Structure to design on (448 residues):
């Protein structure tokens, strides 16, 4: 039985359900209290990191009403009659993790990705995205930002998850990524010219007006965020380098149009000139950001953009090459080798400069479900366990525009939480073995 003080807390928590409260509700509709929760779940844990960036709490009871956090109470408390009690023992609970850069619709890279592009179908892409989404969710990532898919598969998955038809992480989706013709997102690169008419090209823009239109075409499809490339990419099948590809007026047109429609802009950029053009245009995040200079760091601080390092890409490249030395065509392999050598150096400069960091892996290039490998790399390249965890929770939530919904455990927020054995603030690698996942108050089965 709860102690007397605890019982009073429960009475307080449940007072809205009393006939007295209901009578009051009828009497004063303007100040109507919320209806009694249909479901009450109580999670007990040994330690709880409710506010990443601050110290964790000790033993805590998390009260969840209808999928939302209602209260965090000190100690282990028994819930009210009828409440479902989940006892996580001495495990460490933290907010559901957020990956700000994934591609759920694909696993393939190099030559295999080219083959997949001409053999898959939108339907198969959607099912693959759901499968990868489950791997991601089971790894403790309850929210992702999907930065680019060709066929709208992840847009559909986003809606299917929201409707409760299938299980998956919460998805913020960019639809098709936008670049210039011959740029990183030009799907015709290295493909025979007679096949070009069958390849979607409405994501390519040239000149300010054309770039405004490209953004609006994605807005029309119902995207949440806009993704563009201002530089070449490692995986683009052309030896065009990794420098600037989009002009300043084009980048500015993209950002202004996206912001006009209330969408943030995530920018793929490796070369210094392309990063700086994007930041000067008002980009909200830089993805990869491989070659920053002093001006880059100044622009990050000035505009408040986030840096999303995507260090995990090196794992993907290494693993593919170990399996098959010919996994990449020569033009791509040269860039892969460069990326293996340089990745992490930009983060080592960004951290002491005070640049805001959001966690992002580029899963799809690296393996889905192994998103937490990124933590170890972030710590190897200048972050602490605590700041890396903040990057994957509160910071990423702010970048995704979900700061009031996820990324921390506060009353009113979605009950997205995970549990691990051990202390992730001391050893961030324990996040590779997530033992409990809840999304929106629903427990996620960790195996079929
Ligand atoms: Zn990517």
């Amino acid at each position: 039985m709860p102690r007397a003080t605890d019982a009073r807390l429960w009475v307080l928590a449940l007072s809205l359900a009393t006939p007295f409260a209901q009578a009051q509700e009828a009497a004063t509709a303007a100040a109507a209290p919320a209806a009694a929760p249909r479901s009450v779940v109580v999670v007990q844990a040994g330690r709880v990191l409710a506010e990443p960036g601050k110290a964790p709490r000790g033993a805590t009871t998390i009260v969840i009403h209808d999928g939302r956090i209602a209260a965090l109470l000190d100690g282990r408390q028994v819930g009210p009659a009828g409440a479902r009690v989940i006892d996580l023992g001495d495990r460490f609970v933290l907010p559901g993790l957020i990956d700000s850069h994934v591609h759920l619709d694909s696993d393939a890279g190099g030559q295999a990705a080219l083959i997949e592009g001409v053999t898959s179908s939108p339907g198969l892409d959607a099912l693959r995205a759901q499968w990868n989404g489950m791997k991601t969710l089971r790894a403790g990532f309850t929210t992702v930002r999907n930065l680019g898919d060709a066929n709208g598969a992840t847009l559909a998955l986003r809606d299917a998850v929201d409707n409760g038809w299938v299980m998956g992480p919460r998805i913020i989706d960019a639809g098709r990524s936008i670049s210039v013709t011959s740029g990183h997102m030009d799907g015709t690169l290295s493909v025979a010219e007679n096949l070009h008419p069958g390849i979607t090209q409405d994501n390519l823009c040239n000149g300010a007006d054309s770039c405004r239109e490209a953004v609006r075409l994605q807005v029309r499809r119902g995207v949440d965020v806009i993704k563009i490339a201002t530089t070449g990419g490692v995986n683009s099948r052309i030896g065009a380098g990794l420098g600037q590809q989009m002009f300043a007026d084009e980048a500015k047109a993209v950002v202004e149009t996206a912001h006009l429609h209330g969408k943030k802009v995530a920018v793929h950029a490796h070369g210094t000139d392309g990063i700086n053009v994007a930041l000067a245009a008002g980009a909200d995040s830089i993805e990869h950001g491989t070659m920053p200079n002093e001006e880059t760091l100044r622009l990050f601080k000035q505009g408040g953009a986030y840096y999303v390092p995507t260090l995990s890409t090196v794992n993907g490249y290494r693993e593919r090459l170990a399996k098959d030395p010919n996994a990449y065509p020569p033009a791509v392999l040269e860039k892969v080798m460069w990326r293996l050598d340089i990745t992490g150096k930009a983060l080592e400069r960004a951290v002491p400069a005070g640049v805001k960091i959001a966690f992002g892996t580029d899963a799809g290039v690296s393996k889905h479900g192994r998103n937490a490998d990124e933590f170890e790399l972030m710590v190897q390249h200048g972050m602490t366990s605590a700041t890396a965890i903040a990057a994957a929770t509160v910071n990423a939530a702010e970048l995704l525009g979900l700061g009031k919904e996820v990324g921390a455990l506060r009353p009113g927020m979605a009950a997205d939480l995970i549990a691990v054995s051990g202390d992730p603030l001391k050893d961030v690698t324990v996040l590779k073995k997530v033992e409990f996942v809840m999304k929106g108050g629903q427990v996620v089965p960790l195996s079929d």
User: Anything to note?
Assistant: The pocket of zinc ion is lined by residues 101, 103, 147, 362 (CB under 6 Å). Residues 1-31 have pLDDT under 50 and may be disordered.
